[in-house]
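Record 1 of the preview.
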Amino acid sequence: MKIFTAEQIKACDAYTIQQQGITSFDLMERAATACLHWIMKQYPRERPIVTLCGMGNNGGDGLALTRLLLQEGFSAKAIILRHTDHFSPDTAQNFTLLYQLAPEHVRILDPGMFVTELPADMLIIDALLGTGLNKPLEGWTQEFVYQINNLNNEVIAIDIPSGLPADNLPAVSALTIQADHTLSFQFYKRSFLHKEAQASTGMVHIIDIQLSPSYTENAITNFQTADLQLISKIYRKRNSFSHKGNYGDAMLVGGSYGKIGAIALATGAALKSGSGRVIAQAPECGYLPLQILYPEAMFLQNGKNFMEQTVLPEYLNTVMGMGPGMGTAAETERVFLQFLEQYKKSLVLDADALNLLAKNRNALHHLPPASVLTPHPKELERLFGQSENSMQQTELARAKAMKYNVYIVLKGHHTAILGPSGECWYNTTGNPGMATGGSGDVLTGIITGLMAQGYTSKDAALLGVYLHGLAADIASKELSEEALTAKDIIHYLSKAFLTISSAM
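->
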């Protein structure tokens, strides 16, 4: 799914109105009806509802929704904040229709007035301020939102929580509605995909209001979500007459004394991702555990307790994933930097490989084109410096991906995959249970294994991140988020593959 700016969404609305031969009022009615249907599936008609409305189009959505709720038998009323002198035209029309239907269910508040003593079970609908807001809340509206946030009522935001920008993140001191659910029309707003907005949005639900698909197809944006529709186009089913030679060699390089588990997890993930042959290159201390844990993989020794050499040149055409548990010993650092000067094939770098790059930033220029770097936020900070918030960090990673002609997988709840042409995909799978040791090592193995099979770096990163999160989602439903381990993610890759293949 493409992610558009607030201006592009406004243009999409206008295009839809013109192409479908409807009015802006009709589109507002359509949006309100979609919200009504969602609410009807979630709440009984006995649940009392109050809709907080502004004077702009977001308020018009709220007024239309209140009217539809009343017509469906809900106990609903609208409270309007007179924060400007005039309603927008469509909002004025919806105010008239609601007032004609049930004048006793409409109340207008003048500046300085507040809502108090709402019943504890009353559902609050936030339709105060929409995507047109371009500055932080201040004055009366700010104080009003503060008062609402101090109530214990459940809150649903219509399209966007009031005060939250669509295209960037608010200042730490800025106030926004703290919603439990956000009903976003047709698309994600980019801010929704960053951790700083989570307290504002709660759970995000994409509501289809039948905006023009031709606009969506033709409008240009660098930002998308990596969802099942996209992943189904990337995933390739196997040929019945294929053999292991058709699925490539994946070499996982890493491990050191006390950190063999990391390279073992990466090795197991590469095996379960479908690579034809997997080779673990690790120090001697890892021989026994790796051969016991994964007898399907070959073992190559590169030192005693840490990496002291790399096995070249016979494996120069093997896809490599480096870093899990590798350590940063001086000899390992020397060998790693020497390796980067010799190896020309796209590779995957994680963990200590990234930490060594952070110490030797000039080596970034030696990275083979279309290599994949998989940092978590702290590793990215070590590589490229600090950022004020997660969106700025994503933009920093996007700039560095373009500069060094690589793919950067910035791990997080909505892992961002940044490409060398400025692309940015936000992953849509995964859960908090993945915040456990070894989870990143598993991702390294998956992406390496997919690249070994002939997937491009871009497709391997997108498919790998999606599979990684999907396996964790399936596992957490059976095991719980709390009990989820990195090994569980490997184990449930099989069900993740089946989920994707069955969707094709």
